[in-house]
Specification:
Layout: H1 15-20, E1 23-24, E2 33-37, E3 58-62, E4 74-84, E5 88-103, E6 106-114, E7 123-126, E8 139-140, E9 146-152, E10 164-167, E11 180-184, E12 197-206, E13 211-218, E14 228-234
Antiparallel strand pairs: 1-5, 2-3, 2-7, 3-6, 4-5, 4-7, 5-6, 8-14, 9-10, 9-14, 10-13, 11-12, 11-14, 12-13
Length: 237
């Protein structure tokens, strides 16, 4: 069959996908700020269910000890989600905020982009730079890097297109933004030796040991932890 699927069409990784994808902390400690919520609401009355910050509204943050934010700095806000043994916590981005004003550890920021809702109880960290790969098309590779599915980012439902899947290969293994992996079924019938493709992932975020893949095609339901995923298209380095 065609590598990466017959209807494969490459499209560049978008800035919004890079920031909204989420990632695994890989047991690294981050200098998280705390999202304290909407400054127009008294703190006493705020709960994550009542406090919602609409786009371009402001949000209060508490910077971590030793961190110095400057007006104009951009921060990623996120839910610090469940722990995945050996991989740290799942980070689920909620938006991007820009620092307006700081006083000690108190920070006032404006919400400039939302992926879900920016609410109190979330965390924030300085925005990492997005290096746009541009319109470069990844080339098909034979016998590409083998990896496995760690978990899906959102365990709420059956994974579908546009969902995020974490793989156990990252920067250390040469994985780059825009690389394409094919997730395959685990062999139940070893005699045939043919692994059926389950989904095609485009890598939209990379960490040292893991990567976040956006599902761009899905052939059959049943994406699950431990499934093999092979690099089928590689971005030129």
């Amino acid at each position: 069959g065609a590598v990466g699927g017959d209807v494969y069409r490459y499209r560049p990784v978008r800035r919004g996908e890079f920031y909204s994808a989420g990632f695994l902390t890989e047991d690294t400690s981050f200098p998280w700020a705390k999202v304290m919520g909407d400054p127009s609401e008294p703190r006493v009355e705020r709960t994550p269910t009542t406090s919602s910050v609409d786009i371009y509204q402001q949000v209060e943050l508490e910077a971590p000890g030793g961190a110095t934010y400057q007006p104009g700095d951009s921060l990623l806000t996120a839910w610090l989600g469940r722990e995945v043994p050996g991989w740290g916590n799942v980070v689920v981005p909620s938006g991007i905020v820009r620092v307006l004003h700081t006083k000690g550890q108190d920070v006032l920021a404006e919400v400039v982009q939302q992926f879900s809702r920016v609410v109190d109880g979330q965390v924030a960290m300085p925005l990492e730079p997005f290096h746009d790969p541009g319109m470069v098309t990844p080339a098909a590779v034979e016998d590409g890097l083998e990896s496995r599915v760690i978990t899906v980012r959102d365990v709420h439902a059956v994974p579908d297109q546009q969902d995020i899947v974490f793989l156990d290969a990252g920067r250390n293994q040469g994985v780059a933004l825009g690389d394409v992996f094919e997730v395959r079924q685990m062999l139940s019938n070893a005699s045939t030796g043919v692994q059926q493709p389950v989904a095609v992932l485009q890598i939209v975020h990379v960490r040292d040991r893991s990567a976040s893949g956006l599902i761009v095609q899905i052939y059959q339901p049943g994406l699950q932890a431990g499934q093999p995923a092979q690099l089928v298209r590689k971005m030129p380095s």
